Structures are given as structure tokens and as C-alpha cells.
Amino acid sequence: MVSPSQKPSVCNNMAAPGWHVGRYIQRNSRFLLNNFEQIWGHRGFACTPALRQQAAEANKESTETIVIPRKKTWSKEAVLEALASTVSRDYTAYPYLFQDDPYLSPKNSSEFKLFSLSHESGRSAAKYFVDSNPKFFTKDFAEPHIPCLMPETVSLLLEEVSEEALKERISLRKVAAAVDMYDQLMQAGTAVSMETSQDLLDLICFYCDRDPVQDGSEEEVTERSESEEGVKRRKRRLRHVSEIIKPTWKENNNAERIFNLLPERDTRCYSALIRGMVMHGAPAKAFSLYTDMLNNRLTADVHIFNALISAAPAVREIYNERWDLITELLKQMSQQKVQPNLMTFNSVLQALKRCGLLARTQAGHTMSEMVAMGIAPSLASYNHILAIFSKAASSGQPNPDVLHDVMSELQGTSFTCRDPDDVLFFASAMKICMDNKDLEMAYWVQSLVEFGENWRLLGDSYQQSVYYGRFFNLLCSMGHIDEVLEWYRRFVPSLFYPSPQGMKDLMQALDTDNRLDLLPTIWKDMRSQGHDNKRDLTEEMLTLMARDQHSPEVQESFAACALDVKSVYEGDNGRPSLEWGISSLSHVTTLLLRANKTQQAWDMLQLFKSQNRVPPEQLLQDFLSVCRSDGSAQRAVELVQLSAAFCLSVTPTLAKQTLAEFNVTEKQRAVLSELESAGESCD
Predict the structure, then answer these.
(1) CA distance linking residue 552 with residue 251, whole number of Å
(2) Where would you tag: which of 72, 77, 381, 594 has the fewest CB atoms within 10 A of its CB?
(3) How many other CB atoms are found less than 10 A from the CB of residue 398?
(4) pTM recorded for the entire structure
(5) CB of 654 within 8 A of CB of 639?
(6) pLDDT digits (tens, 9 = 90+) for 256-310
(7) Cα dist. 593→94, 333, 552, 559, 622 in Å?
């Protein structure tokens, strides 16, 4: 109800239309009834019984209660979110990561690698300086507060031997220092609480008894910008090194030693060791420790079962035995009344990928059971399903349209990351589309990526490059050239950098749809993307431009492009030059001739001689035709002399044609007659 201190302005309401006044009386009838004389009496209004009766009736009819709304509280990011919702992606801009300095924005995969490494190195250096000198960064002006920009405690502050010092080392992830402090406490006879001991075991088992490696290593950043084949080759070369560097579970390490020193062991202690053994390559020991836990009459938690299920294929050789072990673990979960979660079912699906042909049947049952228990599958669940049915198809089994069913299930759904493997789904789905040459399905997958913020689940820059590279490859092979170019402009450079194979696919698409007139534009992109130093790619483009005759306008653009290619072969802007080949020299010369750039074409013929390359006979015939059109007898004679210098079989023919079709001087005639005779002797 409205209090007397909240009197509204009646004058403003009286100036409004009549229904406003009636609405005002209805809402505030009791206030008006009780304060009628006070409000209107001194203004000359007659306080008649009729008005009092009207107010009383309105009060009886009104059942509404006036509720004064509370103050609306907005989040600190609300303004930024509102502004962000008004703009869309700028497909001509580089990724946000590289927009600090537009001049330094990478234009190709090599610069992307260099910029990424530099960016990560600078961030690490700044973080180290901030954390090492927190006294210089006590002011926090950021609004809203950004915790990652504030100093973190990275140095040990407690030096005395105490449980608090042990907790500090655990929180800072100092594995070796934490183990050393624990041993000192044991030697001093100081008891350590069970909770602290459990935290220590978690730390040791997670990092496999080693101090953690700093995030953002060079290998991780480099891998994102490599092609799929490049990554595979590099991994094969470094596989033996990786096996040495990768931490493995060692016998009687600090985790096992501290575990055996504990006066009592609960489920969490067993969980830390079992999960650590599975993570670091000791699945057999994990199952043995699980048996020991059961013998001590302890029940497992869901994390133990998830780890054992994922490790089941590693401890059984036969497919049926692997599934029997998984089934037994699920039965024990039910017996111990452990409620499964999403990771439980995803672990089952992941293990089924190593169970042969029976995986298809059991995968369907697993998904049905997951839904029956009210657990919504994540993208990782569907990714495992795709892998299972794709593997079965590669083994000769009929391949149902599983991707179509999955996409029908996921259409119009916005996802959040619930499993680390969620980021693998879209790349796997696009690979199936590419293998099946199904462009319509690829568009369907792309529409799901663009729905809401699902694009965030594409993964890091490398995984995004894989996804868009596959999509672009399929577009070039199956799509219309207008669609290809539209998506090309949307993808490059804002989303990924095409590989040399991607540019070849694009040129083949232009050739298929007879749009070779766009090759000069593609060449500019190749130069900006750093692909102009790929000889096979450059020669492929020259071959397409020189293959057919085009309109004068197109030939003019081809000639300008050929001259730019020539500058690349000669080494411009301090870059190393490419090695000329017969085909590249011939194509550039042909393109210049067709655009009537005779002098530049003649310079290319001289380049044949300096490069010790023999020009094709057809090229000399074409050049002679241009000389005939220009009426240049002297240039025709020089052409015959050049042919004779290479002792070509076409020399006599060129000499005869020149004598018959050009007005030559007596001196030139003598030279041509001599060259004709010399050419016949060469034959």
C-alpha cells in the first residue's frame, strides 16, 4: 500500500486522459479515501458524498496489491555483452589474438607460428615478472576485477617444518618440495591430518611424482599451426623421444611409499593412486590396487570406476573379455550403490572403440541407458558413437547413416563443454562428410557450429584449422565456385590459413567451373599467405593460366601476374629466389606473348639461354607468329639464331619461314641461309 510519504503528483495525472485518472483512483482508492480532504480540500474541490461513494466502491472492487519493485541489479559485464550482441564477426579481420598490432598480424601459417610463440613467450615473461614482484602491482583498477592479471604467490613463504608449510607447497604444486616437507614432518614425529595427506597424494599422482611442466610449451603452440600430415610426420619422428619424456608410473614411487605410510586409508586415498596409475600407464597395478581396496571392505567412488572402465581394454586381449570386464565393473557400481555420471558412460563408449564389432550393438544400449538415467549425452558421447560406427564401416560392415541421426538429435542445440573430448566432435563429423563427399551434411554440421556459441567447442587454433580445412576441401571438390569463393572469403584470414594443398584445391575448383580469370586474385592471396615460395604451387598456377587462350582483358591480367611471378623467381624483397624450370619459363613467356608484351617475352627467351634451358619448339613458333604480326624482321632473325644456338630441329623450319614471310636485307638473308644449312646438318 502507498504511504502518505509516497504521495504522487495529482496534477500530472489530472492532465492525462480520463482513463489515466480512473486507473489512478482504482489503484490508490484507499489512500484517496483516507486523505481526500487533505489532498483536494485546500484546492477548492468539493468533497461530495458521490465522490466518496465512488472511491469506496473502487476500493471494494480492487484486489490488487501494490508491490514496489526492487532495484534492478546488472552484472558488471552487462554493458559489454549488450555492445557485443550488436556486432557480428568481421570476416576480413584477423583473429582477436593478433589484433594488438595490425602491422604485425600474421598473414600465413609461418607468421602465425612465430607470432604465437612470441605472444606466449611475452605473456609468460610478464606473468613471471608480476608474480615475482607483487609489491609493484598492488593497485587493481580493472572493472570488473580480472583475477588472472593480479599477482599470484609463486614463492614459498613458510620455511619452518609444519603442516601449514606442507599445505602451501601443495597449493603451489611444488611436488618435490611437498614430498620433502612431508618426510621432514614424519621424521620429526609430527602427525599430518588425513585431509592434507589426501591432497598430497592427489598432487603426486596427478603429476606422476614430478614437478609440473610450465603451460604453453613451444611444442603445444607449434602444433596448432601445422597441417594434419605435418603433425603426423613430426610425431612419428619424435615418437621415441616422447616415450622417454612422457612420465610413467614407477614402482614404489613416492605416491606408493606415502600411501603405505598412512595409518589408515580411505576411498579417496585409493582413488588418487588408482587414477594416477591409469593416467600414467600402469592399468594392471590399478586393478590390483582396486582388489586390495575391496579386500579392505571399502567401497569405490565414481572416479575410480571411470578410470578402471577406461583402462579395461589395456588389461584384456580378447574383445569379448574386454566387454565382460566393463560389464562386471558396471555391476559392481550397482552393488556398491555408486551413481554413474556422464564421464562413466563416456568412458564406456571410449572403451568400446577397442572392442571390435560388438561395439556397435553395445554402444546403442549404452546410449539408451544413459538417457534412461536422465544423463544428457555430451558432444564427446556422440563423437565416440561416430568413431565406433565409422570403424565398423571400415571393417566391411554396412555403414548406417549414423551422422544423419546424430545431427537430427543435435539440431538447434547450444552446448557447453562437459567433457574434454567435446572439442573433437565437429572435426570428426566434418571428416565423415569429407570421406563420404556429402556437402549437404557438411552444411548441416556448419550450421550447428554457428548456432549459439557452439563455435567455442571447435577447440584451439590448430583444431579449428583442421575443421575448416576439411570443410574447405569438401567445398572445392563438390561445391559450386560461387559457394567456394563465398566461404573462402568468410574463412580467410579470420578463421584459418589455407595450406598449399588447400590453395591447389581452390585452383582446381576454379578450373572445373571455368573461372580461371580469378587466378591473379588468388595469386595475390598466395603471396600474402606466404605460399609464393612453393614451386609446385606456383607452377600449377602458371600451367592453368597458359593452357588456353582468353580474352584480351584476361590475358592482360595474366601477363601482369606472370611478371609478378617472375619477380618471385628472381628473389624480391630480400627473399630467396626459386629455381626456374622449363615449364615455368615457357608459361611466363607464353603469357607475355599473348598480352603483346614482346620485349618482356624476349627477355624471358634470353633467360632460357642464361639458365641453360632449352625452350620448347612450339614456344619459338608462337614467338615467330608475334614477330610476323609486328613486322619485326630483325627480331625474327634473332629468334632463328637463338634456336640454332640450342641446335633445335625446328631451326631450318624457322629459317625458311622467316625468309618467306619477312622483308629481310641481304645480310639477314645470308645469315638465315647459313642457319638453315647449319640446322639441317644438326639433324
Answers:
(1) 78
(2) 72
(3) 6
(4) 0.76
(5) yes
(6) 999 999 989 999 999 999 999 999 999 999 999 999 999 999 999 999 999 999 9
(7) 39, 80, 12, 8, 8
